[in-house]
From TrEMBL:
Gene3D superfamilies in UniProt: Glutaredoxin (3.40.30.10)
Cross-referenced InterPro entries: PDI_thioredoxin-like_dom, Prot_disulphide_isomerase, Thioredoxin-like_sf, Thioredoxin_CS, Thioredoxin_domain
Disulfide bonds: C1-C4, C325-C328
CDD domains xrefs: PDI_a_PDI_a'_C, PDI_b'_family
Alphabetized UniProt keyword annotations: Disulfide bond, Endoplasmic reticulum, Isomerase, Redox-active center, Repeat, Signal
Family: Belongs to the protein disulfide isomerase family.
Name of the protein described by the UniProt record: Protein disulfide-isomerase
Originating species: Plasmodium ovale curtisi
An example molecular function term from Gene Ontology annotations: protein disulfide isomerase activity
Amino acid sequence: CGHCKRLIPEYNEAANVLAEKNSNIKLVSVDATSEQTLAIEYKITGYPTMMFFNKQVKLNYGGGRTAQSIVDWLIQMTGPAYVEITENIEDVLAEKKISVAFYMEYTTKDSDIFKMFNEAGDSNREIAKFFVKKNDKHDKIYCYRKNENKVEYDKKLTLTEFVNTESFPLFGEINTENYRFYAESPKELVWVCATTEQYNEIKDQVRLAAAELRDKTHFVLLNIPEYSEHAKSSLGVNEFPGLAYQSTDGRYLLPNPKEALYNYKDIVAFFNDVMNGKIQKSLKSEPIPDEDKNAPVKVVVGNSFIDIVLESGKDVLLEIYAPWCGHCKRLEPVYEDLGRKLKKYDSIIIAKMDGTLNESPVKDFEWSGFPTIFFIKAGSKVPLPYEGERSLKGFVDFLNKHATNTPISVDGVPALEDGTSEEL
């Protein structure tokens, strides 16, 4: 693994730095190709994978891959959960350039609220910094976020819920470093795609809307032009500024965003319309192609998915492919051969869809790799994943087991009376 080879010297240097600091943290490595039982136990699927064990609790490593970033992350994850200060908290945050922090003014460390604050800090080391300062008059907790007003803990939520909610900005930039935290949150993402200039123009109105919708959503800024391709290909936002709401049942685009994003009431009204079924889902789709009855494989796009795959009244074998995928390219001649040889069966459609340019309007059809192949029986809306051999015989065997009308036979793979097939 090339990534592993590049990591080794940095990992070794991090171990040396920790040793020089007389740290109790030990760095170890495991060859997962040799220790396969261990790899299976910890569900290792890619390399390198780094995990941190603290007090027998496993955490996925969330730092960088340089020696210093490894050391910094490990120090952050160990030691005291908070930093005691005597200075003004705002001066400390400005000096250290900290984006999110929780701060407690306490009367005694023996109080229940202080113990809860310490536990919250210990459990959330990755997402925020925690500071405390002695105060003889009161116990108060605040969240400070860069460029936003501080928020005082009012005890309407548990302290853990308060930390989990307020550690995310009302409207902050999303990037490769913090995406994992947003992805792991149960809340739905609202992507605002804008340039820096546009962000400065709309941020106050968007924050007002985000505050009103905070219980269910995270508003994030996707920087344009840095992520313009992602905005277009994955979110369906082609003009900027724009807003895409990714809910659990689909994606919705804010109508007339060049005006609506400048008025928080219009943004909130959009979400109300989504909840009331007044806004249609946005579906990524190529134009529906002209039908080629002689083509061995039928082309499906997002906007023709329901008609062809779910409502044709026929069995459908559907390949989700990517134009750049090597496995897909190797499968193509086999799949087209299958399509040609099954033309005589009117009850079966052999189809394909470019999974990089199209989406399924149905939640049950999801894919994370290419090619992904589904079989959909006539009259059913539930896909059966194809996990057999990617050969003519493999496909015919599968269809003889699952198709509506059998037996199925093609040249070279005749069907037997029991519905199975045997290669000549």
